[in-house]
Structures are given as structure tokens and as C-alpha cells.
Specification:
Length: about 270
């Protein structure tokens, strides 16, 4: 595992790495977020034996592991060293690096497929991040971002927390945060500016399910952006706000189900 952190990754790395274990065990646990989206990209990109794959913003390595199980040669990069350490333990055969998706430390055409699951929107220079993905890809770039922010359960949980961010942090999140590429046309603009050509485009229903309120609270408190609110307003206040946001989504079986949708755009480089 090598390290090369700069750009927006110098900011996001410590935030997403602050509670790496909580993130890995909730959002990227065995029943974590993303399975329908991951499976969609694996199928549409025809990832299997003989395919080389790089996952940008690989987190704790769940997608990298799924690609490896299909026989692909895999690699991942993330700004959070703590998450990369967990990914390396989970997928020993993969090549992982701590670094910046706006400056990928690989040569041109190093991989067949380059993916980014809810990661490109966190880059300060999103066009550069996608251009870098295209540079190191011989075939496809898959960019996955959340859609329907107004209907999203994830967005609803954050609403009571927003007053606990300081103004600068909140403004930064709007420019480089989870929903920064969710408005219609935003992803299309940066994909075109990066010189990529859309090949396959789909919206996927990908509800987020937690076994109970405690698990859901742990997941959200472990998210990178939430660390900014904790720094500004304290752990207790943020935890109370997160619980307020989660309670409407708790069912009679104690599970917490958050409706969410993600756009998976595959483009040729």
C-alpha cells in the first residue's frame, strides 16, 4: 500500500478515515449499501476473468472484493488510509493505494475498467477526476452518483444535522459532497468536459437497510461529512440530530429502510 495524498483527498481522507471501522462494518458490511448498484456495474461492464479494474474511492473494498470474486485483477484507491487498511485485509490480492482520484498514480491505459461509486462528486475538480479515470482506462469508466435528492432517505437524515455545520463547511458540501452531481445534467456536463462518451445509462433503486436504529446511527456518525458537524457542534448534538432524522424510517420490525436511487453511467474513454 503506497500513499500519495493531495488535492481534495487531503481534506476528505482524515474525515472518512476518522471512524473507518464503523463505516466498513455498516455501509460496507456483508449486508451494506450498494449491492444492486455493484452488481449492475459488474454485469454491464462485463467484469470477469482477465478484466483489470480500478475502483476510485474504494473505501473498505467491498466492490473490489466482488470484482475479485468474479476473477478480475483488482486495484483500489482512497483518500482515507484507515479504510484502505481494512480493504487490504479484506482483499489481499488487490493493489491498494492511499491517494487522490484527481491525480491517479498509474500509467495511461493501465486498466480495462475504472469505477467510482459515490466518489467523483467529492472531488474539488470533478472534471479532472473523471479525466484521470479516462486516462488510466482502456475501455470503460463507470460513474455512480445518487439521484432524486428530494426523495432520498439519506438526504432526509442529513436535514436535521445541517444547522450543526458551520457555514463554510456547509457551503463546501454543496460544491463537493454526496449530492454535488445529483441535479439533472450535472453528471452529463462533467462527463462531456472530461472527454468521455456515454455508453450505458441507468437509474437503480438501491434502498439502504439497517437492522435497527443503533446500527443506522453508527453508520451515519461514521460518515466523512458528519465529522465536520461533530467538530463544529459536538458528538452529542449531532447524534441527537441523526436519531431525529432516522426515526421516521424505523419500521415495526426495528429495521431502518431509507429509499434511495443511484445513477450508473458507463462511458467510453
Amino acid at each position: 500500500m503506497t500513499e500519495n495524498v493531495g488535492g481534495s483527498s487531503a481534506r476528505w481522507g482524515p474525515l472518512f478515515g476518522a471512524r473507518a471501522t464503523a463505516w466498513a462494518e455498516t455501509w460496507e458490511g456483508s449486508a451494506g449499501w450498494g449491492t444492486p448498484v455493484y452488481e449492475h456495474v459488474l454485469e454491464r461492464a462485463e467484469i470477469g476473468p482477465g478484466t483489470s479494474v480500478l475502483d476510485c474511492g474504494c473505501g473498505a473494498g467491498r466492490f473490489v472484493g466482488m470484482a475479485a470474486e468474479r476473477g478480475a485483477e483488482v486495484a483500489g484507491i482512497d483518500a482515507a488510509g484507515g479504510l484502505v487498511e481494512i480493504a487490504a485485509e479484506r482483499v489481499p490480492a488487490a493493489q491498494f493505494r492511499v491517494g487522490d482520484i484527481e491525480a491517479l498514480p498509474w500509467e495511461d491505459d493501465a486498466f480495462d475498467v475504472v469505477t467510482g461509486f459515490s466518489s467523483f462528486q467529492f472531488a474539488d475538480d470533478k472534471v479532472r477526476a473523471l479525466r484521470e479515470a479516462g486516462r488510466v482506462s482502456r475501455h470503460l469508466v463507470a460513474a455512480v452518483v445518487p439521484t432524486r435528492a428530494a426523495e432520498s432517505g439519506i438526504a432526509a437524515v442529513f436535514k436535521p444535522v445541517f444547522p450543526l455545520f458551520d457555514e463554510d463547511a456547509l457551503a463546501s458540501l454543496k460544491q463537493s459532497g454526496i449530492f454535488a452531481l445529483s441535479e439533472p445534467g450535472k453528471l452529463d456536463e462533467v462527463v462531456a468536459a472530461a472527454g468521455l462518451t456515454p455508453h450505458d445509462d441507468a437509474e437503480i433503486d438501491c434502498s439502504v437497510v439497517f437492522e435497527d436504529l443503533a446500527a443506522a446511527e453508527r453508520a451515519f456518525m461514521g460518515a466523512g461529512p458528519m465529522q465536520l458537524a461533530i467538530s463544529a457542534s459536538g458528538e452529542a448534538a449531532v447524534a441527537d440530530a441523526v436519531r431525529t432524522g432516522l426515526e421516521p424510517f424505523a419500521g415495526g420490525d426495528q429495521r431502518v429502510v431509507l429509499d434511495s436511487w443511484f445513477r450508473a453511467l458507463l462511458a467510453t474513454s
